[in-house]
Design a protein that fits this description.
The complex is a heterodimer of chains A (about 300) and B (about 250).
Chain A: E1 2-4, E2 11-13, H1 14-31, H2 36-45, H3 50-74, H4 80-107, H5 110-141, E3 162-165, E4 170-173, H6 175-191, H7 196-206, H8 211-236, H9 242-265, H10 268-291, E5 298-301
Antiparallel strand pairs in A: 1-2, 3-4
Helix pairs in contact in A: 1-9, 2-3, 3-8, 3-9, 4-6, 4-8, 5-10, 6-7, 6-8, 7-8
Chain B: H1 2-14, E1 15-21, E2 26-28, E3 35-45, E4 56-63, E5 66-77, E6 80-93, E7 96-100, H2 104-107, H3 110-116, H4 120-123, H5 134-147, E8 151-154, E9 159-161, E10 165-172, E11 179-189, E12 192-205, H6 207-218, H7 220-246
Parallel strand pairs in B: 2-12, 7-8
Antiparallel strand pairs in B: 1-3, 3-10, 4-7, 4-11, 5-6, 9-10, 11-12
Helix pairs in contact in B: 6-7
Classes of the chains: A mainly alpha (about 300), B alpha+beta (about 250).
Chain lengths: ~300, ~250
């Protein structure tokens, strides 16, 4: 069934979009990731204009994170104070990102900007995850030995503007979480992602937050930053496609439930190596598009696209 | 000599177009997947067809609204392909289809093409392009738009019967831009237009498509908030439904 998307102004198979949302939902359920970094490039591949794909996927992330956040709030595994510091940084970052996005859009270089960001971030994250899960699999084969204590004092603890974060049991400077928030905000505006894949490792390894509050706190930040980014895209570029978002959301929520069930049946290391492979695959496809001689050297852009 | 001119003027009026359209507007609905539009008509004449004045030809064009377009050209910079040159094309129709009843040069002389801007390269003008080989850019524009079925050149597609009845059907693609479209029909003898008719075909979004699009443009804050509210409701609703379902 073909459906005409009012903002993207293309006619796409509704079941294809529903299926895309579902597929990404399955993956996000399996791996516990938001999936924005997969949905945006997949939307490029089915012919949605990049500006619309980025703006709409931020809207979709709001939906997919909301029920997760509710669950974490109920379990009290959200550090609201830390979340607020990350959020303030996120709002600043998202605004900066959108200024850059719109500037390059006016130069006709926004596709390049988005692709480059994707190639770099997916490449780095995919490679790190791949190595990490290979190591984990090797370690799993050895008898359980002593593990290194994770928390240790580093330069992060010597910065000014210290603040007490009771839920996380930390007394650290607000500068590092603020900067992490800014980075994630920039990525949200440019790539149409929530940024959990950057924020979660940064919270654990850089800020030293306890693992149990990390996911809830990052969801708290992600919801508000992506909602803010959606509003920025909607009011400055008019590129949020509500019909596209709705199809992706419904597919995504159903997929996520299935994904959770599948995820429980697989081993964590296998899951992570699969996800790493997937991330590297998407990265490779985008990188090839930049590196290989394109079959059509010319491209056009008119009002609205 | 004067007599001959009078005769020519007389024959020009002697053959004229009677035009019909299968529909006088196109509505882009939520399930819009392109549309066929049939343009048909007849040649009305008061005297027998003046065959000695050359072959009769029919040319039908359908033209969308003129919109400015930027054409970019990529080049390799530091190993990757980047848009480097650009040309602003001031007037390029968002959609353009031309159909003829016979090979182009038989039904239309070059001078007349230029005068009436009938074929595609004549309908596109880029004034003040600063890149040297700007024709390469307009050619690329035509090539890309042809691939998207937004430019169609259908030589010989007009079915002309008995030098009187003609019909041609155009496929309007799913990615059709909105605006006022014009269908033009030229009747030619020996490559010269002897009569011309035109009809307007408005193409617009209707219903919910129109409503959403309008709102996104004019009340973007409200539209953004609506998108967010809908996202939260759908995301929450669907997972709540699943929770009930699993119990």
């Amino acid at each position: 069934m073909q459906i005409y998307l009012p903002i993207a102004e293309v006619s796409v198979d509704a079941f294809l979009l529903f299926g895309l949302g579902g597929l990404v939902g399955v993956l996000s359920g399996m791996f516990g990731v938001g999936g924005g970094f997969l949905i945006t490039p997949l939307l490029f591949f089915v012919g949605i204009p990049p500006a619309v794909a980025v703006a709409t996927s931020t809207n979709q992330i709001v939906a997919s994170s909301f029920s997760g956040l509710l669950a974490h709030l109920k379990r009290k595994t959200v550090d609201l104070r830390m979340g607020t510091v990350l959020l303030v940084g996120g709002l600043v970052g998202s605004s900066l990102g959108l200024i850059l996005f719109n500037y390059l859009r006016s130069l006709g270089q926004v596709d390049l900007l988005v692709s480059l960001f994707y190639v770099v971030f997916l490449g780095v994250i995919g490679a790190l995850m791949f190595v990490e899960s290979l190591n984990a699999m090797r370690r799993a084969k050895l008898p359980p030995g002593k593990r290194k204590p994770r928390r240790h004092h580093n330069w992060v603890h010597n910065l000014p503007f210290k603040m007490k974060f009771r839920v996380s049991g930390l007394y650290i400077s607000v500068v590092p979480p603020f900067l992490v928030g800014v980075l994630v905000g920039v990525l949200s505006a440019i790539m149409g992602v929530g940024g959990g894949f950057i924020m979660v490792p940064a919270m654990i390894y850089l800020l030293g937050m306890p693992t149990k509050v990390v996911v809830g706190t990052s969801l708290f930040q992600i919801i508000f930053v992506t909602a803010y980014t959606t509003m920025l895209h909607a009011t400055t570029n008019q590129t949020v496609d509500i019909v596209l978002a709705l199809l992706l959301i419904v597919g995504g929520v159903i997929g996520a439930q299935l994904g959770t069930v599948i995820g429980l049946k697989l081993k964590a290391e296998q899951l992570r190596i699969l996800l790493a492979g997937l991330v590297l695959l998407v990265c490779g496809k985008l990188a090839l598009d930049l590196l290989l001689t394109p079959s059509e050297l010319y491209s056009i852009s008119g009002p609205g696209h | 000599m004067i007599f001959l001119l009078l005769l020519a003027a007389g024959t020009a009026r002697a053959e004229s177009i009677v035009l019909g359209l299968s529909q006088n507007q196109v509505s882009i609905t939520a399930t819009f997947d392109g549309q066929d539009i049939l343009i048909f008509g007849a040649v009305s004449r008061e005297a027998p067809a003046p065959a000695e004045e050359g072959e009769l030809g029919v040319i039908v064009t359908v033209e969308g609204p003129d919109l400015p377009v930027t054409v970019y050209r990529k080049a390799r910079r530091m190993g990757i392909w980047v848009n480097v040159d650009e040309v602003e094309v001031d007037t390029a129709p968002a959609f353009y289809a031309v159909a003829t009843s016979a090979p182009l040069r038989e039904v239309l002389r070059d001078v007349e093409d230029l005068r009436n801007s009938i074929t595609l390269p004549r309908a596109i003008r880029s004034v003040g392009a600063r890149v040297e080989d700007s024709t390469a850019f307009t050619e690329a524009l035509i090539r890309i738009k042809e691939r998207q079925d937004l430019y169609q050149s259908r030589i010989g597609a007009v079915d002309l019967q008995e030098e009187t009845l003609f019909r041609v059907s155009f496929e309007l693609p799913a990615n059709l831009p909105e605006g006022d479209y014009t269908a033009r029909i030229f009747l030619t003898r020996d490559g010269r237009p002897i009569d011309e008719a035109s009809a307007k075909i408005p193409v617009q979004k209707v219903g919910i498509e129109q409503w959403l699009y309008e709102m996104s443009q004019t009340q973007s804050v409200f539209y953004g908030l609506l998108s967010l509210a809908l996202a939260i409701a759908a995301g929450w609703g669907a997972s709540a439904a699943f929770a009930v379902f699993r119990r």
